Structures are given as C-alpha cells and as structure tokens.
Predict the 3D structure of the following.
Amino acid sequence: MQEVKNRALALLKDGTVKRVLGWRIGENTYDPEPAFFESEEDMQTFVYNNFCAANLSKYMIEASKLEGKTLVCLKPCDSYSFNQLLSEHRVDREKTYIIGVGCKGKLSIENVKRAGVKGILSVNDTDPLQVETLYGNTEVSYKAAMLDRCHVCKGKEHVVYDELIGESEDTSTADRFAQVQMIEAMSPAEKFAFFQKELSKCIRCNACRNVCPACSCRKCVFDSDKFDSAQKANVDSFEEKMFHIIRAFHVAGRCTDCGECSRVCPQGIPLHLFNRKFIKDINTLYGEYQAGADAEARGPLTSFTADDAEPSVVAEGGTK
Amino acid sequence: MSVNQEFRPKIVAFCCNWCSYAGADLAGSSRLSYPADVKIIRVPCSCRVNPMFILRAFEKGADGVILCGCHPGDCHYSTGNYYARRRMTLLFSMLDFMGVENGRTRVEWVSAAEGVKFSTVMNDFVEKIRSLGENVRLGDLRCKK
Amino acid sequence: MKKIAISNLPKLYAAIAKAQSLILPVKTAGKTNFSLWTEACDVDLQTLKTVKSAKDAFFPQSETLYHCHRDGKNITITPEDLQSESFVVFGIKGCDVRGIAVLDKVFLAEPVDSFYAARRCHGTIVSLACGAPEESCFCKVFGIDCAEPEGDVVTWLTEDYLYWKPVTEKGEKLTALVADLLEDSDDAAVTAQKEAIGKIVEKLPYAALSLEGWNGEALNEKFNSPLWETLYKPCLACGTCTFVCPTCQCYDIKDYNTGNGVQRYRCWDSCMYSDFTMMAHGNNRTSQLQRFRQRFMHKLVYFPANNDGMYSCVGCGRCVDKCPSHLNIVKVIKAFGKEGK
C-alpha cells in the first residue's frame, strides 16, 4: 500500500514523528521484516504488503522509551494489543502516532507451503496468489494462504488510532472456540495424549513468549537463574507443560488472542489453544471479556465478585 | 471402583495462615485424625499461592494438591481468597483440559473453628486420590528415579 | 551401487532396527523431526528439511551427565553411561552431514567431549541426496554438493527405488547387515538425478551469495560496523535460529533437584538469550545488539579464523525459513555485501 508509505514519509518529513515503525522490504515479497525508519532515504526500503503479518505493538514497548514520537502501523487486531499495553502502562500513547491500516486478512508463507508448494521463487499478495517456483508455476487461493488467526478475525474496527488508511474486512469464517470445545469433549486420556504429542515437539526456543505483546515483563520468571527449572532444555516430561501452562496463565485475562504465538512456533504447536481455553472459561464464568477492547477496563483476574463460581462446581461442569 | 489400600499418595495442602492452618491446628488439638499422607504448607493467604506452586508440587511427585483458605468474605486481608478462587478455577480447568484428572486438585474453605471440617476434607481428598492412583501425567520423570 | 524398491523400505527399517537403533525423519503432529524408528511411526522422507537438524542424534538438546543420589548420610555419584551400542541415522541431508563435521571440530578437538565422541564412534550416517532443493537452500555457497552428500552410506530416492552406495567401512558393515534386501544396480538413475539436482541448484535464489570479506582478518572491521545497529532491531531474542541450526554448539550445564538427589545435565543454549554465558560478575554481552552480532560473527568470522577457514554455517536455510521476524544470515551477509565491505 503506497498510501501508507507516502503518509508515513510526510509525517516523518514534517517532524510530527521522529521515526516510523513499519516494514523493510525483504529478499522476496513474503519476508518483510519489522523495522524502524528515521530518514527519508531510509524510507526507500519501506514496504507494506499483505505479508506484513507480525503484531508491531510489542516493539512499541521499546520505542516508548526513545525520545520523540514513533509512528506505528497497526492492523485492527494489533490495536487491541496496543490498547492492552496502554492499560498496563507499558507503552506511551503520547509518544505514539498510530496509523490504523486496513486489513483484509494477512498471508503466511508457511500456509502457502502447507498447501504443497515447494521452492518458491516469487509470489504476489493478491487473490489468488500467483506463485513462481523452481518446479513450475502455480496458484494458491488467498484464503488458503491466510494466517490461521484471520479465520477467527476480531473484526474490522481499530480500537485505538490517530488516522485510518485503507479498508478493512472481517475475514472470520470459523468459531474460534470450536477446537477448544472439541478437546473438552475428549476423555482425560485422549486430552493427555493430544497435548503430549503436541508439546513433545516443543524445542523451548521461547519464540512464543518473546513475540507475545502481553508478555511484557522486563525479566521473565523463566529466565531467572534462581529458578529451579530448565528454561532451555526439552526433557519431554514436565518442563514443556509447566512452561506452556504458566505462559498462558500469565497472560490470562490480558491475552487479546492475536495469535502471534501460534504464528511463530517453528514446530507448529497450536499454542493459541491454551490462551483460548482461558478466554473461553473467563467468558463463561465471569462474563464476556475482550482484552484490549477498553484501555480503562479491569481485567477478569484483577477483579472478582462475591458470588463467583466455586472451583469444585466448575470441575463438575457447572458455572455458578 | 477398586481402591488400592497399599498405595500411599503424596498430598500437598496449601493452608492459609489465618483460617485453614488454624483449622488444621484445631483438628490436631481436638485429636481428630486425618491421614499422614497430607503435607501441609503454610502460606500467608490463599492468594499467595502462585499457579507455579501447584505445578511444582505435581512435578516433584505429589499425587494431589489441595488449597485451603478462609471462607469467601472472611479473608484476613479482605479479598485475597476471591482472587485465589478465580485463579485456581482457571488453573484447575486448564489442568483438566490437558488431561490431568480434575479430582487431583481441589479448593476448600476451612475456617479456624472448623477442625472437624478440616479432618473430613482431608480424609475425603486422600480417599479420592487413592482411587485415582499415582499421578503419572504431570510428574517429572527425573524425580521418579 | 545397490538399490531397494520403495515398497520394501519398511522392511529395510525393520531389519536395521532389529540389530541397532535407527533414527530417521518421523512426522509427529504435522512436523517432521529426527526420531527413533518404531513400528508405528510415520517415516517421512519427502519433507526436505526436518524442523530441527539431525544434530540431536549426536548432540542431544538435553542429556544427563551424572546423578548424585542421597540415601541417608551416603551420597553416591553415578556417571551417565556413554553410548556403547551402534546406531544408524538415516536420511540426513548433505548440509546436516557437514553440520556434524563442524561439531566434530568443536567436540573432538582436545579436550575431547566423551559423550559426543562415543556417539560419533557408534553412529553410522546414511545420507540422502536432496531430490528437490528449496528456495532457502544455499549449501552450494559452502561447497556442499546436495546431490552427492558425504556420509558412511549415500542414498538417492527416486520414484520407485532408493539407491544405496556404501562409502566407508562403517557403511560397508551396515550394507552387509541388510544385504539380502538390496539388489545390485547400475547408476544411470542416480546420474540422471544428480544432473537434474545440479540444474535446480544453479537456479536457487541464494546460489550466488558471496562470502567475500568474511574471514578471520575482517574481525575488527566487521565487529565495529554500524550496520549491526539496524540489523538487530527486529530480533525478538528467541532461540529459534540457534535451536534449528545444524552447527550451533553452545550448551549450558545445570543441576536439577530431584528431591532426593541432583541430576547434572547439559542442554543447548542460545547466544540470543539474556542469560547466555552468565557468570558471577554478570553477563559479558549486555545488549541484544551484542548477542545478535555474536551469532553471526561466530559463524562467519571467529569459527573460520580458528578452524582453517571452515565456516560454521552450512547453508541449510532453516533460520531463513523459521525466523519469526524474517531475519536471517542471508540478509546479514547481503547487507555487508551492499556496503562493499
């Protein structure tokens, strides 16, 4: 989208912002990297296409510590994460200029590959994707190449922005709790086998944690040298479970369900399931809650009511 | 269900200092018995219990973990147990989601005057864990050697 | 040259596994990684790159070194047994085989790492040529021929057959073990495949990547370059690149309290982590820029300076595929290339 680039450049030139947080063109269409731009010359390499999928809100934590205003490009779902960070005082609204960029679903090169395409030489970002490969040319439908999270899109509204560029579209086609419900219906042995199989793949790279906009602690409990846990070892028994339960628990009530954790997992573990289970429980037990929708709201785990459901009741499947 | 009477489960009970620990004390001084399989850990408030404590207990070989605190409304710090209630509800639900039998975790409210309740709860919980058998789904294999 | 029909491969696996343990690419929950063969496992030779490299077979992500066990007032220390039985790693690609050669430089040099050495001594490598290289591959840049990899036995997979060529003494031994399953063959099909692969390799986008200027002499100039300042910015400080890498060899040694003793183990470490090489005085790399720089300087400058010019990158392209921020060694090399340095 040339418009985003032009506008960002204009704001950079007239001094409204000191830097632009956007995307630098990669080796190909599909691998742009998040980047800060500080000059007009630098902006030559700025790009905004449908492969710009990462949630830039997390980078704003660091940017808020820098001098001057930072312009950031946020998609509707990213704006929830930003708002959530705002409510936790981890980002500075005064130092941020938000361009709410329209989004009609973002693409994932992993999903193009998952569709069976190998040796990709070039790809465009329109529907359908025209893919040139080492082994001939092919087409992949936009929907098939879309990130998994876009199928459960949060909607086209930005919850926080200074100006909007481009149209958005609600791309949701699936029930986001369907998979959670499917697992809930399993027997304990089946549930256990399912997670054992998925988590045995975990290589403890911490990408899920580091990319998460809700994981904003300066020092993670799992990085403590006094902590009696192998934060890097995969031992295929307990550590992975501990890590993933606690990771999800620490962001429970604050997770906006942006889906970054599952996007970055090199082993394709459906990490969002943990977060969605918490979200589903919160919605059922304590009332519908969307983290980040309202920067003034009190989170479900930092509030209570006197007649909350008892754990024993919930264990039997009750809600009150 | 056949219950293996030979099996001595390891149970960790987190008890809040103000109510449940005093309740346990009362059970003791009233000569009410409960199985020695229960190991009590005193915490300042039920709210002090970090979800990691629960997981850590399982990791190191616990077969069941129970959290006891003041009755809702009676927290020494006014509201601690309300927060604990939400946290434990979510955590236990997650453990259930991952295939850990939900009988292995429990929350009970025991006041300082409820020595009898403390002993009943513990007897009941130990029986439950006995019927579930050894915890094999959340422990660390390295601790079993 | 020998060959075996694809339909007979399960018999081959079973025959090898009967005598020794067999490690090969197995698909679990949608992803392929090297894992122990079992009757029920889903062997996957079609996926070009396993998520993790094959280095786990020789240098596992975590391994116990010894146990201390306390019984009353007595403490017994039991060292973990060294690998003493033969095993086979099947289906390693050329880049990963070279990756093991890189690890050899580190672990087989004095002082020899006995755990690693024992595994190297008992492991037989059956490599597999890459029938269809992918866009992120650049092994050619490091002089690796993915059409004819190194290894004890080299194999080629065509539509109907797996071609089998023993190269070393270990390879001959393994061939003798499964001799009844193999039949003699000419090498026409293999020659044709090699030629086809060669043509694809020429077309790979990173085939012409230039490593000019990356050597021990360039240390100061590369280290002090202002380019790192921009390059590191998108880095999330996760360990994905290091954990999927076939040559990353850093590890940490830790103790695990088992309740009645201690288990000392080592596990892979990542230079991207804030507690990497943490010492009593603190950490010698205090910013992500320094940590990020370390990874590339190590692979492209320090390692060749200490190992007769051998780079500790093999061009497998896993980091290119897996980095959550699309940051990778190719972009770094190219950025310096553009600067003309």
Observations:
- Chain A touches chain C at residues 26-28, 31-36, 54, 118-121, 133-135, 197-198, 200-201, 203-207, 209-211, 219, 223, 225, 228, 230, 232-235, 263-264, 266-269 (CB under 8 Å).
- The first helix of chain A runs from residue 2 to 13.
- The CA atoms of residues 32 and 52 of chain A lie 6 Å apart.
